[in-house]
Amino acid sequence: MASAVNFHLAENSASNIIRRGALQFTKKNKTIQTPACLTYSLRGSVPHLVADNLKLLPIELVQISLEQFLEQKEPSSFKFPHGLHKYLHLENMLLFCDIRDPLKLSPVSFNTDKYLSVESHGGVRQVTPTLWAEALNIYRPDLIAAMADTVTDLEAKNKRIIRSVDRSLRWLDENLAKAKELDIPLFAHVLGHTNIEERARSARETAQRDVQGFVVNVLGLNHDQIPTLIRATVDNLPQDKPRLAYGLATPEKILEGISNGIDLFDGSYAYKATQKGRAITLNLWDPSFAHDFDPIDTSCGCNACSRPHTKAYIHHLLNAHEMLGPLLLMSHNIYQLDQFMAAI
């Protein structure tokens, strides 16, 4: 059976660590040019935006965090029979479903060989391979990530790191069999935390499985360690499959990731900047913008800049706690992040 996802590197990228490529979703007849950012979501909604706003933005691949839907023992979303695209009114988008939120991988109670602990609005939940498969069958996303026993403690002992790699490989085999049965492409997490040898082992073992891509998580790790840890991972991965990174969200870190062989990024920077009242790096809470009647960026084609809405107006909206303020900033930040990636 042909894969629903194919990845092709540009000719001049095949032998380089810095890559350009195309991630093709054959069932949807859509292609994502890489490097690229996913669009971050909260409980399936792109923060601050509604459907009409999304139509005006270059949004193609939305990241969904499963833990945000497990507020009840029997999630209400499981009762909807028409899949996650219709449930979220994102029929024209591609959906990538992972269990944890890439913006805040909060430490929760311990994991076991039988389940993964996650944090939901209803408290800590236990995700088993059976529950993971049930969600996959009901939601039918375009792409899904396997279960992973991700270590969140920076002081974790090697014994804990080794156990997380072994456990995740066992889950991967079980998840992969179910994903193949349902014909949904799967990305595998490559683990190892701060242990270079375990990063390499996890990459080698995972690369032997028939997955469509890899997730490289460096969320919360010390910045000085990240390039070495990424290279220990990607040096042991095949060239012809895409790599998605968590924890490289800012423009500077995205460039660092690209220079170390990463193709896809979690895209949470647009949301984090918006929450701080920033248009990328411009802090519109600053009182100096109270009488600035220019748009944020005269060359920007987003809804906030092309109307145009002035910096003074957005500054006023923020101070008045009007919903339109974050809406305009989120629109601008998503648009600018897309333009940034396209220009690389």
UniProtKB/TrEMBL annotation:
Entry keyword annotation includes Cytoplasm: yes
InterPro entries, alphabetized: QTRTD1 (IPR028592), Queuine_tRNA-ribosyltrfase (IPR050852), TGT-like_sf (IPR036511), tRNA_ribo_trans-like (IPR002616)
Pfam families reported for this sequence: TGT
Statement: the UniProt record of this protein carries the keyword Heme: no
A Gene Ontology biological process term: tRNA modification
Domain (tRNA-guanine(15) transglycosylase-like) ranges: 18-344
Sorted UniProt keywords: Cytoplasm, Metal-binding, Transferase, tRNA processing, Zinc
GO molecular-function terms, A-Z: metal ion binding; tRNA-guanosine(34) queuine transglycosylase activity
Protein name: Queuine tRNA-ribosyltransferase subunit qtrtd1
Organism in which the protein naturally occurs: Rhizopus azygosporus (Rhizopus microsporus var. azygosporus)
